[in-house]
Predict the structure.
Amino acid sequence: MNSIYINFRNCYGIKELEYTFDFSDKKTYLIYSPNGVMKTSFAKAFSDLSNDEPSRDLVFESETIRTIKNNEGQDLNPEEIFVIDSYRETFKSDKISTLLVNTTLKNRYETIHANIDLKKELLLKELKPLG
């Protein structure tokens, strides 16, 4: 994917944002702004698409537009989007290992966490009769 086009209007407080992120000469973008400007709203719009939910504006009752397309003009598939909720203290996702680039480390990470989940489940099963 060489680019992502977004067009947000009345989307979680974003009055209007239209931009094409061009990835032809870079792999990432960093969005930096003061608190309360639009970062969470931006992430929420992508999260809505990833969860196949409509976006909306929580304050005004205006028409909401959320367009997110690839360089071929096609809508991004929900499976292509991964949003990390920074404000959720106990964030968990099955897709988190996709952030790891090294395949060996990724496989190790998944194995370790699968074992932790299994041990946790066994422990809870053992503790249940005691409660």
